[in-house]
Amino acid sequence: MASHRDGAPEPSDAVATSQQEHQERFPDPGLPHHPPRLTDVDPHRAKKAERQVAWLFGLSILGSLLFFVGFFAVRVDGDIYDVLNPDPTSQLRLQNFLLGLGVTFAMFGIGIGIVHWARTLMPDHEMVEMRHEVSSEADRADAQEIVETVLDESGIKRRPLIRNTLIGAIILAPLSFITLFRELGPIDTRVLSHTMWDEGIRLVRDPSGTPIRAADVTLGSTYHVLPENLLGISHQDGYLEEKAKAVVLLMRLKPEELNVSPDRADWNYDGIIAYSKVCTHVGCPIALYEQRTHHLLCPCHQSTFDAANECAVIFGPAAHPLPQLPITVDSEGYLIARSDFHEPVGPAYWERGRQKEEMASEA
């Protein structure tokens, strides 16, 4: 490169600089060529694609109906289909199969139907529009006009078959999830305030129903426990519902390792403690006990409770300790309950504080 006598390089046409008056400009290539689809030029193809989309939305509707059949018609307690399928385990498998298959078809039909609709029938021309703030009445009117144009171009107004099946699928599909959410807990939360436990009720092993002697509970051992009066309830009378509320974990620690509040001084017997097995997060069953640390772990979301410290939450999303069941022994040395739980069992909810106060006032 040539340079001046003072060492500065001479300008060259090979390198573009900002001082150049004429800069090279690239022409706007415009939008690429847009080949028409078969559905754009062939009415029969368009009608076939419309029927395919409607069939997919119809599949979603059938999936939702299949979910409701599995949820409401197939009973696990043996009330229905006793002759055809008397095994409750088989009924449970059938119900789970129908629920899963129904939700799959409901979501698959809507998703694939919308994708197929967009790829074959909705306008696919590329457009460039300037963004601007919607502020004035005129701008809002323009925005409304754009929405109406989109509806017109999508064909939803002039394709009633697609419109009607889509409406049906959109209405039914969310109902399956609402139904599942409804089963997460009772609408009337007061049912969680009382269980089958009461003063003098023996603690029995689940599922054998054998009473538990305090002398047989060794250090580090864990028992899954039910109230003895639950054994006389049939499935038709709500056995599973009552068991879900009353199930308890029983364990024995060294008395000096327990951190006991003054008002709970007589809730344990010689280091034997009992806590609700239902996690206070979303109600999963707690079944993992770590003997060395005295930690109880919920397998669903890893909420961890300290059994030596009145099952206080030390990790995870749970917001409340596990409710403790006051226990003692009877004249024969069997473990019995002193009373029911003093607070609601199960997941935390917005009325939990009020329910706890009502239970304390009743006691």
Automatic annotation (TrEMBL):
Residues 1-41 are annotated as: Disordered. This is Cytochrome bc1 complex Rieske iron-sulfur subunit. The keyword Transport applies. PANTHER family: CYTOCHROME B-C1 COMPLEX SUBUNIT RIESKE, MITOCHONDRIAL. One of its GO terms (cellular component) is plasma membrane. Residues 245-336 form the Rieske domain. Gene3D superfamilies: Rieske [2Fe-2S] iron-sulphur domain. InterPro entries: QcrA_N, Rieske_2Fe-2S, Rieske_2Fe-2S_sf, Rieske_Fe-S_prot. One of its GO terms (molecular function) is oxidoreductase activity, acting on paired donors, with incorporation or reduction of molecular oxygen. Its main location: membrane. Iron-sulfur subunit of the cytochrome bc1 complex, an essential component of the respiratory electron transport chain required for ATP synthesis. The bc1 complex catalyzes the oxidation of menaquinol and the reduction of cytochrome c in the respiratory chain. The bc1 complex operates through a Q-cycle mechanism that couples electron transfer to generation of the proton gradient that drives ATP synthesis. It comes from Rothia santali. The chain crosses the membrane at residues 53-74, 94-118, 161-181. The lineage of its organism: Bacteria, Bacillati, Actinomycetota, Actinomycetes, Micrococcales. It is a multi-pass membrane protein.
